[in-house]
Design a protein that fits this description.
Layout lengths: L2 H20 L4 H11 L4 H22 L17 H24 L2 H23 L1
Helix pairs in contact: 1-2, 1-3, 2-3
Length: 130
């Protein structure tokens, strides 16, 4: 490993930590970082992001496990398990469909779809902000 790549490992850890503190998922930012810093192709960068997303989510869950819910007067955990139960089937279905398309489609189309989905997500976030 070249010394600059060792430095980039700490940069990646810092980015993951900052996105966790902000409450964001790490998958949206880690793909362009991996492509820019390490010169990965699209499919390898997405594979790493698919690993780092649940890993950072698990660390965020463990760190916030002892914090009480702000609206329940300290009587519950900060994770709303009803929302988790409601969203989990659609997340699993989306992962299954996405993995089929991931294998079938070439890198250019996967990258175009990645940019399209992130642009739509950014538009929705900005629209909801204002």
């Amino acid at each position: 490993m070249v010394p600059i790549e060792f430095f980039f490992c700490f940069v990646i850890i810092l980015i993951i930590a900052l996105t966790n503190v902000g409450g964001l998922g790490v998958s949206g930012i880690i793909v362009p970082v991996m492509m820019g810093l390490y010169h990965f192709d699209v499919k390898n960068a997405i594979a790493i992001s698919n690993f780092s997303g649940p890993t950072s989510g698990l660390s965020r869950f463990v760190c916030s496990l002892s914090e009480p819910h702000p609206l329940k007067n300290g009587k519950g955990v900060s994770v709303d398990y009803d929302i988790v139960t409601f969203m989990l089937p659609s997340a699993i279905l989306g992962a299954c469909i996405g993995s089929v398309f991931y294998v079938m489609l070439p890198d250019v189309i996967v990258m175009a779809l990645y940019i399209f989905v992130n642009a739509i997500s950014a538009f929705i976030a900005i629209y909801n902000y204002y």
